[in-house]
User: What shape does this take?
Amino acid sequence: MKKYVVFGLLAGVTISVLAVYFRRKKLAGSEFNGFFDSSTVADELFGDAFEELPDKP
Assistant: This one.
């Protein structure tokens, strides 16, 4: 009975660790997806900071 409890705990921990690992691997590099996806978002974030300046004569 005791070995089944230990086996169950080890199996649960192993499955949890693998799930976290593969989820992080799948999501790696996607932190900013959808963050800068349109100019309206950039305008809301930065305002006029990146508008072109007129040429000086």
Summary: Helices lie at 2-27, 39-46.
